[in-house]
Sequence to fold (144 residues):
Amino acid sequence: MLSEFKDFIAKGNVMDMAVGIIVGAAFTAIVKSMVGDLINPIIGVFTGGMDFTNSYIVLSGEVAAGASLEAAREAGAAVFAHGAFIMAVINFLIIAFVVFMLVRYVNKVKEAASRKEAEAPAPEAPAGPSELDILMEIRDSLKK
Fold:
């Protein structure tokens, strides 16, 4: 059973998947930084300086005015964190768009490679006597 497991792990698909997960985790950190450090401030400019990540509505409990979302959660208040949800949607849209662009690029590269293969000239038949030539030669030798 251990050798089967080693064979399973050693297959290319499993290794490709592992690399994909590791790269995906690193990519998630980049997207979070992009949203938090680049997009949120731009959105904040258009919304009058409002930080979406800390935008919430207190449903029940006591929260100090102007407290951050994290502070409200630590205080035990039930909060409707619509800003965090909006940021999650923005993160998803950015990731989905980037993945779409990567898949689109990979598909174009594959298409170009397959087009190149299709345009490549077919290999020429080997230079030598054809079957007909050999049969005619046999016929001629039998006539002698």
